[in-house]
Design goal:
With about 425 residues, the chain is of the alpha+beta class. Among the domains are: about 1-30 and about 205-270, no CATH class; about 360-425, no CATH class. Helix content is about 45%, strand content about 15%. The strands form six sheets. A three-stranded antiparallel β-sheet has the order 2-1-15. Helix 1 (about 1-10) crosses helix 10.
């Protein structure tokens, strides 16, 4: 019973820590990490950076109304204010699109609720709604509806599909997306487990875990008096563990001399941090998650860095990762925001992806120069892409033959060929 008396004496000093005894250690099952939600997954730097990079990319891309027949922007269309100036009373278009894309990545579904004018039904605001507040469902006729909890009032509503822009991640049924976090849950779970193990390693002073042994029976419980007059029933083993970790766990207690009494013996049993190979595991986790999100490693400050490879990776990122997402945005925005008459006229909503390549001046300049030399772009069209005003004579397009106007290209081409043939005849 000597341990009972010792534990009771120590109980007063351990009162504040007794309630934490149940969570001491790292005995969380792997399934607990796999089932963690988006908030826990975002604590992994790779997940956070992937979501931030993709949502920021979509947020910064300019959106506008375009006439498909002329390939020109419709400058006076009322939707341009909604798409380029203010999405709603509280958010800019960048914040609105970034929030929708973040929900699409983390929840599988991004939602933009269209608030329309009651008289004209013209879109007045685009309100991003957290995916947790929206439930899509099919009625008996196969029509899609949305049950929505109003993000401001908490009022339950049913929203028609025409008033909800629905941006999906990978989908199995065609009307509800599956998030990247869910599909990558095993990799995220492993990364979270390694991260928490590493955290516990340093919180416990960098010392390996071990076993406290004694020949005395430690089974049973003790009633520990609390500060408010109550008593807390605590097992003897938990009380010893709390007292030990209070004195020896944490960076501030690293390398302290342990004084063991009552026949206690401490035996370390854990492997070292080096043996666990945390660096290699972290690198593999980064690569796996980058594959799930489709984000190149250089955007995660990982992998080997070189200007040439990063340049190609940037192009691949735009073509393979961003373009399918952009296409879904364009199709959904055009169908839900434009009227049937406008769609019949050839109007559509377009997203300019060139903004993603603005940082790579060398590649962008070479690309624009090539298209101008081919006659695909005029000077004014290039200046429009750079948000610069038009210049006199800038609408002319040039091709080869020393960059002559396209309107004269055929005539000058024939003249040059005839001149070559005449020279051959005289020879």
């Amino acid at each position: 019973m000597i341990f009972d008396r010792a534990l009771r004496r120590r109980g007063g000093g351990a009162q504040n820590a007794v309630t934490s005894a149940a969570v001491i250690g790292t005995g969380v099952p792997a399934s607990g990490f796999r089932e963690a939600g988006a908030r826990a997954a975002m604590k992994l730097s790779t997940v956070s950076r992937c979501v931030e990079a993709l949502s920021a990319s979509m947020g910064k891309l300019p959106v506008y109304v375009m006439d498909r027949s002329t390939r020109r922007r419709v400058e006076e269309h009322p939707l341009n204010v909604l798409l380029s100036v203010r999405a709603n009373e509280a958010q800019s278009p960048l914040v609105c699109k970034k929030m929708a894309e973040g929900n699409r990545l983390c929840g599988g579904n991004g939602y933009l609720w269209i608030l329309r004018a009651p008289d004209t039904l013209r879109p007045q605001q685009l309100l991003p709604v957290p995916h947790e507040l929206v439930t899509p469902w099919l009625d008996s006729g196969g029509q899609l509806w949305y049950s929505v909890i109003h993000p401001f009032t908490g009022e339950p509503l049913t929203v028609h599909r025409a008033d909800m822009i629905h941006l999906m991640a990978y989908t199995y049924n065609g009307w509800q997306g599956v998030s990247v976090l869910q599909r990558a849950s095993d990799v995220i779970g492993a990364g979270r487990a390694a991260q928490l193990y590493n955290l516990n390693y340093y919180e416990n002073g960098g010392q390996p875990a071990g076993v406290l042994q004694t020949d005395t029976d430690l089974s049973g419980y003790l009633d520990i008096p609390m500060g408010d007059g109550r008593t807390e029933r605590v097992s003897k083993k938990d009380l010893i563990r709390v007292e030990w970790e209070k004195r020896h766990a944490g960076p501030a207690n690293a390398h302290r001399i342990a004084v063991l009494d009552y026949g206690l013996k401490y035996t370390p049993i854990s492997i070292s941090n080096k043996d666990a190979q945390f660096v290699e595991q972290s690198e593999l986790s980064v690569q796996d998650l980058a594959r799930f999100f489709g984000v190149p490693l250089y955007k995660l400050q990982a992998g080997k860095q070189s200007y040439e490879s990063n340049e190609q990776n940037a192009i691949e990122y735009v073509v393979s990762t961003l373009q399918p997402i952009v296409t879904q945005y364009e199709e959904e925005l055009s169908w839900k925001l434009l009227t049937s008459a406008e769609l019949a006229r050839g109007l559509e909503i377009r997203i300019n992806m060139m903004a993603e390549l603005r940082g790579d001046f060398q590649s962008r300049a070479a690309w624009l120069r090539t298209l101008r030399e081919l006659g695909a772009f005029s000077v004014n069209e290039i200046r429009a892409l750079e948000d610069m005003p038009e210049v006199d004579g800038g609408d002319e397009r040039y091709a080869s033959l020393n960059y002559v106007p396209l309107s004269l290209w055929r005539e000058l081409s024939v003249n040059r060929n005839e001149g070559g043939n005449n020279n051959a005849d005289h020879a």
